[in-house]
Specification:
This protein folds into three domains: about 110 residues, 3-Layer(aba) Sandwich (Glutaredoxin), CATH 3.40.30; about 280 residues, Class I glutamine amidotransferase (GATase) domain (Rossmann fold, 3-Layer(aba) Sandwich); about 30 residues. It has an eight-stranded mixed beta sheet, covered by helices on one side. Strands 2-1-5-6 form a four-stranded mixed beta sheet, covered by helices on one side. Strand 11 and strand 12 form a beta hairpin. It has eleven helices and 24 strands. It has about 500 residues and is of the alpha+beta class.
Length: about 500
């Protein structure tokens, strides 16, 4: 190549590089191969930060020079904020502070609601305790939100977007939470209440004659335990007929562990729902994919606590193709019932089903905690446990979403408080979002990969696999032995030949 051609080639390549850089300032592509798309902002986030009117300031309090996983979290959060800044046309502004640099910065972080975690690390072959800060303070105008601790993965995006949404929403819609019949309080549903408060104002209400339901677009009714007066259903009928929506979580059956019995529970709610097009059966759902209970068993001279599978606590991982359940992976129910359409004049859409190995037991039921369950106990599959009921096209009326477990969103209080499966909360709040036509956060809420159960294998296949695992190595050893034996024979026969010594 001559010097002139080389010069032209270098000029051409330089021009191409400059052109690519100019184009990339406005157009860029990022490939994200992670299962939960943790490095790709969801459409919900893009919509929220794209509508920002004023700057959002994020002050990230992150310790440095910790264990590799914590340093990686810091870098991931910084990359995420850079993406927010780029996609919001620099409406998101951020700074990083290392509180471990001085006592003043530590005091500042704590005063702003960022509490440290104590982690162990090894320095010079010694175990050292360190304080680690991994939180953020978000400001928008005069509003402030605090994320005390950031979790890794796509939970970072969820926490940050929810904080921004909570501050920027112009006016929160009221949501009525029906009380007065033994229902749990908002404090007993703390996780659901906290999630609802991002977009709504949950308000406890009763169905007395004086209450005005016109201000509500959606009502929530969770686990009524007492008999409901007919006048209250008449009030609810008027609300639904005028286009109001209802999310219902009902117990058609109840379990008593002290007696080991399960029985039918009547509140009048099932009769009202049947008139609306959905029938809840008086049975207990059982599923091979389930949670466990702890029982005390005698082993020698000792009594020990042993966890055993309990099919009456089904783990639901079969969902319909519907926005309410899109992205969900596992919902834990307890003592749920089956449901079915009761009226062909309504639109009945099942939302969640039992697994491939499931069945029902008609109430009353005796619970045998030590029972060894087999494949023959589960003769059915895909039994509906949640459904959406809506009027036929062209007819007036609201929508109703029904869950056949009234306890799946209840945390409890005090010593009885428990943490719920994350998808339990997502499923319930998604239902409220859907009925309020506010589906912006549904995709983001269910973005994280949380549950990947192993496939269920039937008993005949299990037996076959056991035989294969035990017999295949023996068979391979025998085959190798035969091959080596035959090879040795061939070598000896060859040595006996007269031509071998020549």
């Amino acid at each position: 190549m001559t010097k002139t051609k080389l010069k032209y080639t270098l000029v051409l390549l330089s021009g191409i590089v400059v052109l690519i850089n100019l184009i990339s300032t406005d157009f860029f592509v990022r490939l994200d191969f992670t299962e939960d798309q943790r490095y790709t902002l969801s459409q919900s986030t893009l919509d929220i930060i794209g509508d920002l009117q004023d700057p959002v300031t994020v002050t990230a309090y992150f310790s440095e020079d910790l264990q590799p996983q914590f340093d990686r979290m810091r870098q991931d959060f910084m990359n995420l904020l850079e993406e927010y800044a780029t996609r919001s046309d620099n409406k998101v502004v951020f700074t990083f502070i290392n509180p471990n640099e001085s006592d003043e910065l530590e005091n500042e972080a704590r005063q702003n609601g960022i509490q440290p975690l104590v982690i162990s690390s090894r320095e010079k072959n010694q175990s050292v305790q360190k304080r680690a800060y991994m939180g953020a303070v978000i400001n928008y105008g005069e509003a402030t939100e605090v994320i005390p601790f950031l979790e890794p993965g796509s939970q970072m995006e969820y926490a940050l977007t929810m904080a921004i949404k909570k501050m920027t929403i112009p006016e929160k819609q009221p949501v009525g939470v029906i009380a007065g019949h033994g229902e749990p309080t908002l404090e007993e549903m703390s996780e659901v209440t906290s999630e609802l408060q991002v977009l709504y104002t949950p308000e406890p209400i009763t169905l007395e004659d004086s209450v005005n339901l016109d201000k509500y677009k959606t009502l929530i009714w969770v686990r009524p335990a007492d008999t409901i007066p007919p006048a209250h259903f008449e009030k609810l009928n008027t609300f639904v007929e005028n286009g109001g929506n209802v999310v219902v979580a009902i117990n058609k059956v109840e379990a008593n562990f002290s007696t080991g019995m399960g029985r039918d529970l009547y509140t009048g709610m099932s009769d009202w729902l049947e008139k609306k097009g959905v029938k809840i059966n008086s049975d207990f759902l059982i599923d091979a994919s389930c949670g466990s209970v702890t029982i005390r068993q005698q082993q020698g001279p000792f009594m020990i606590n042993t966890p055993v599978s309990f099919p009456f606590l089904p783990v639901i991982s079969e969902f319909a193709d519907h926005p309410v359940v899109k992205g969900l992976s596992a919902v834990m129910l307890q003592f749920a019932s089956s449901l079915e359409p009761a009226d062909t004049t309504v639109n009945f859409v099942p939302l969640a089903y039992s697994g491939k190995q499931s069945d029902v037991r008609t109430a009353p039921v005796f619970f045998n905690f030590e029972k060894e369950w087999s494949e023959s106990d589960f003769s059915r599959s895909r039994i509906p446990v949640a459904a959406l009921v809506s009027p036929e096209n062209g007819k007036q009326g609201g929508n109703i979403i029904v869950f056949t477990d009234g306890d799946f969103v209840i945390n409890g209080t005090g010593q009885n408080a428990r943490q719920l499966q994350p998808d339990n909360i997502s499923l319930f709040v998604n239902s409220v979002d859907y009925l309020n036509d506010d589906t912006g956060l549904m995709q983001l809420r269910t973005k994280t990969v949380k549950h990947r159960p192993l496939d269920q294998i039937n008993e005949s296949k299990q037996t076959w696999l056991k035989i294969l695992n035990f017999g295949l190595p023996l068979l391979l050893v025998i085959i190798i032995g035969i091959v080596r034996y035959q090879k040795n024979i061939n070598i000896r026969n060859k040595r006996r030949e007269e031509s071998y010594a020549k």
